Amino acid sequence: MANDVLTYDDEVILEEQGFDDHFHEHEHGDHFKSNFVNHYVFSMDHKIIARQFLITGMVWALIGAGMSIIFRLQLGFPEESLTWIKPLLGKWIAVDATTGIGTLMPEFYYALVTMHGTIIVFFVLTAGLSGTFSNLLIPLQLGARDMASPFLNMLSYWFFFLASVIMFYSLFLSTGPFSGGWTAYPPLSALPQASTGSGTGMTLWLMSLTFFVVSVLLGGINYITTVLNLRTKGMSLWRMPLTIWAFFVTAILGLLSFPVLVSGFFMLICDRMLGTSFFLSEIFIEGAALPNVGGSPILYQHLFWFLGHPEVYIIILPAMGIVSEVLSVHARKPIFGYKAMVFSILAIGFLSFIVWAHHMFMSGVNPFISNFFVVFTLIIAVPSAVKVFNWITTLYKGNIRLNTPMLFAIGFVSMFISGGLTGIFLGNSAIDIQMHDTYFVVAHFHIVMGVAAFFGMFAGIYHWFPKMYARFMNETLGKIHFWITMIGAYAVFWPMHYLGIAGVPRRYYSFNTFNSFDDFTALNQFITIAAIVVFAAQVLFVINFFYSIWKGKKMTTKNPWKATTLEWTTPIHTGHGNWEGNLPVVHRWAYDYGKDGIDYVPQHIPLTEEEKAQEGSH
């Protein structure tokens, strides 16, 4: 044992101290899976399924981000011709026969905004983030061979893929995809005749998201069961890494909240197809009254946001867990306040269920009820602030490695602080009257939920890429990706706060007819240019990702980051079953860095006599 680095032999320790679950005697790793389709397509190996979620999420991220570039072009340069994009968008670009100028059709603009929100929130930041890292890390960090039910795990991905196919198909309908907003508020979503995009596109949208919810529920049940039942010997709840705590609570949130959304979808389908009036009442179309009476669109808002607000934390909690792990590993310090971090995750999970109506301050709810939601909205900032304080304290006086995973983790903390602070304004019902449905709201939730969650995802991808592919991503390209994304994201969304304070409304196709908004033309152009630059950086990331799978620097040691968690004790090329022999036994918590002059002590290293004496004294 040297002064600053603990030396050990994994094979010897696993053989002497490991836990024999007899799995390897029967399964023999991946040797029985020689078929390409069984191995890479219909795989039941959690690591392959994690890659499937990740790559599918990346495809959707490019589609969703590409949509945002198209509608930003409309907002930033409404007078410019878009004829050049007509080969891609077809009839949705109207070309003036006289001038030859091509303009984006208004109804397609709203379809782009709707699909952008749906894709990024559900398919990328829910399935892509949680599906990837929950699948990859829960068995590896808990010392399990696989998920509790590998078959359900496979089904979880394929229901997501089915949802993706249906949603993708809806983009090519002659009437266009659904265009009533990603929240799908009635009556636009409840009446097929309400708009062009409320017809078949909306029906496919509902079908797609219903299958998506099935995927989330199958995955969530699996994650919860695995955490509770398949932890290796010695892995108590209080020895789990914070990543696992975050994924565990995220799965519980999804299990409790997504079925509520499906109930709303079911009632929407009934209103659309069976003539019911759950969400419709006193609707007039072209002067004629519809027979629907007695329904309430506010009921749908309650059902949607009862999922919608836990959904915010379903997105951000996995990123928080990933960032906690990455900061600790690359600062070479124990995470500060481990139990406080766990309790803050639990508090956020609980409080997320009693703040949903802060999205509805302007919907006519009783002001007394609004005050209740104001109080709890502000209270939920407390556990979030605990996490921020602990991240900063973990960094304080750390031996920080400013590599790409660490840069994105620090960037996450920056985004979470700046975006979270603006949420305090919107959480106040009086101030929300001015800010509601302006660009201030767009700026707030894009920074705190969108960009921050992406930063957490990027930190995780760069950090665990060697575990997924036994190679490293290019560090130089990674740092270029970080700096362009960090500066560009602030350039895109920070100016939107000023637009919102000035009262510029969101979701408008064009501001040309509003003289009061002429002063913001240059700012809108600046935002659009910044968005294009940020999108280019994400294309660079995708190139780096796929190039590195085959050509990246090879991993030569099992634990390149010198981390303490169990996933780095598996072989470099990990087969199905993760560990070739015995499972590791856990003897300590997940963050023994810089202890007694030793750089790091992995969880499976037995306690010394001195440590046993210290534990006994406590």
TrEMBL record:
Q: How does it sit in the membrane?
A: Multi-pass membrane protein
Assigned GO CC terms: membrane
| The keyword Iron is annotated on this UniProt entry | yes
Which residue numbers delimit the Cytochrome oxidase subunit I profile domain?
A: 31-609
UniProt GO molecular function = cytochrome-c oxidase activity; heme binding
Q: Which residues cross the membrane?
A: 53-73, 108-130, 151-172, 204-230, 242-269, 312-329, 336-356, 368-386, 407-427, 439-462, 482-502, 522-547
Q: What's a BP term from Gene Ontology annotated to this protein?
A: aerobic respiration
- Keyword Ribosomal protein attributed: no
The alphabetized UniProt keywords are:
Electron transport, Heme, Iron, Membrane, Metal-binding, Respiratory chain, Transmembrane, Transmembrane helix, Transport
InterPro entries linked to this entry: Cyt_c_oxase-like_su1_dom (IPR023616), Cyt_c_oxase-like_su1_sf (IPR036927), Cyt_C_Oxase_1 (IPR000883), Cyt_c_Oxase_su1_BS (IPR023615)
Q: Which Gene3D superfamilies does this one have? A: Cytochrome c oxidase-like, subunit I domain
- Give the highest taxon in the source lineage: Bacteria
Pfam families documented for this protein: COX1 (PF00115)
The compartments listed are: Membrane
Where it mainly occurs, coarsely classed, is membrane
Provide the family line. Answer: Belongs to the heme-copper respiratory oxidase family.
Q: Can you name this protein?
A: Cytochrome-c oxidase
**In which organism is this protein found?**
Portibacter lacus
